Amino acid sequence: MKLSILLLLLIISSSVGIAYGHTVDAVGKYRVEIGWMNEPVVSGETNAIEFYVNPLVPCPQIPEVIKCAESQEFQNGIEGLKKTVKMQLIYKDESITLPLSPDHNIPGKYYAFVNPTVSGFYQANMLGSINETPISLSMHPPKVEDRTYIEFPQPADITVQQIIDGHTALIEDIGELQDSVKNLEDNNQQMDMGYLGIGLGLIGTALAVIALAKSKKN
User: Fold this and answer.
1) CB contact set of 74 (below 8 Å; sequence gap of 6+)
2) Are 118 and 94 contacting, i.e. CB atoms less than 8 angstroms apart?
3) CA Rg value for the chain
4) Positive or negative torsion for Cα 9, 14, 18, 22
5) CA 161/CA 147 separation, integer angstroms
6) What pLDDT does 213 receive?
7) Where are the domains positioned within the chain?
8) What pairing do the DSSP bridges indicate for beta strands 133-139 and 123-130?
9) Of 80, 71, 69, which is closest to residue 107 (Cα–Cα)?
10) DSSP classification of residue 146
11) Distance in angstroms (rounded) separating the CA atoms of residues 202 and 84
């Protein structure tokens, strides 16, 4: 019975961790937390990293500070950090400094808006000060997935190939009609010039119709 309960608790806790997807740490007497605003996060879409700050309640029974912070929930958030804390977002050798925008409904919650253009793991360096406590902390939000993860149907390569095939067929049709025009010109001495003009006009109309049909098809 005890073993079954233990397994159930492990399953529940792991499921909550996957759904939640936030990273928790501690700075001095403060608990800090980051995570993506919209999950799953995919490349090429505007998103934001959420940043939470609240007092860290002491945990005499938990000696590790990070474990202590992870055992607590966000509450009683710290306001007024818009001008004192910045986020430096890093991907490989590139970085950008993002300002924090406070959530007007939840004190102590802030947003750093960004459009992650490529998939992979990003690093968020929180820099500045929380009241009188300096903060220089590296945190890692969940991985950014490639946008093909949610694209349906997958249009890119198929569309390009269709355009290429359509243009190729159109060029072939135009070539055949141009040959016909040339043959008419070579034999114009045996044809009445009036009929030749009509024939050229019909060929021009045919070219326009073929071009329009190909464009609608693609």
Assistant:
1) 31, 33, 52, 54, 108, 109
2) no
3) 32
4) positive
5) 21
6) 53
7) 23-149, 156-217
8) antiparallel
9) 80
10) P
11) 75
State the pLDDT confidence band at 147, using cuts at 50, 70 and 90.
Answer: confident
- Single out the residue of 133, 45, 122, 39 nearest to residue 85, CA to CA: 133
CA separation (Å) from 69 to 17, 27, 59, 106, 132? 15, 10, 9, 19, 20
Long-range contacts of 9-12 (CB under 8 A, 24+ apart): none
Which strand (E) or helix (H) includes residue 54?
strand 47-55
Query: At which residue do the structure tokens 């005499």 appear?
Result: 60
145 within 8 A of 68, measured Cβ to Cβ: no
Q: Does domain 23-149 have CATH number 2.40.50.140?
A: no
Tell me the two tokens of residue 55: 């007092």
If we measure between CA atoms, which residue out of 16, 96, 15 comes closest to residue 49? 96
| Cβ atoms of residues 170 and 163 within 8 Å | no
Q: How far apart are CA 109 and CA 100, in angstroms?
A: 9
For 10, residues 6+ apart whose C-beta sits below 8 A from its C-beta are none
pTM: 0.62
The mean predicted confidence, pLDDT, of the chain is 79
